[in-house]
Task: structure prediction
Amino acid sequence: MRNKTQGVRMLGLMVMTMFLSGGVYAAESKTTSVATEVQSDLPYYKEIMNIIGHLEYSGFEAMKKPDVSLNIDFVKRTWTLRNIHRYDKEGGILLEEGRYGLCAELSTYVYQKLRPILSNRYELKFAVATEPGFFPTHQSNHIVLLISDRMTNSFYFIDPSFHKYGKAKDFSAYQIFGVRDALSFVKDKSADVTFLTEQAMPLFMKDDLMLSFAVTSVDGIFDKDNFLIVLTANSRNTISGLNVVVVGKYRGQIESYEGKELLVQLFNPLELKNLKMKIGQWLAQSHLI
Result:
């Protein structure tokens, strides 16, 4: 089996560029005083840190649910995870176990919690950004939140994925490419997420590694006899990664690969068992094995 490094490419709406400079406040920051609106020169500091402090960046908990399925469209060259998103009766996003989600889900959750308590002085929007460690390119489509102060024209950013909150000047390595009032999947209440082949969906971060999931072609050929399900691990500040799990078909023959050292580092035995079982179920349900 050939172990080929798969590039992680994600598609996003890029409409403007803004460079920021400085340091960041993280969720573990200590404070000795409390104010309702302003603390450490940041609006609603205590409230925001309380919201983001328990969140964890992970799509694995949602992906392994029994009702989540994988659909591969060889004609459109896309793959879809169905039932990956859940909503409450008011249409709000639900996080797995109340804490797990990817950047879009986490930012939406924080928006839902924060918007009702902000005064009319502040405007809250979503921003498409790069993040230097794991989302360094403009294709990354990383989602953060932007707070604007109508009175002072000051700007603040919240990155729930990394428990960060600070002034615009404090996000030194971030670049903002677009600002949105809402995210389309939430407006549409979509339960599914679709990617082109070769595009990857992040799963979780652990030990300075980002694990991503993708369905890819084989030497440009994408049909029921030539496809791969690939889990790739990227180190912080790197673009290319190492394959952790590869399973699929090459010229009609089932092939697989496991990077055992990385698997042990990223998964406990039960998680690994559930992962392999889930991928096997998807392939069987799609009549691909």
Notes: Residues 1-38 have pLDDT under 50 and may be disordered. The chain has six helices and 21 strands.
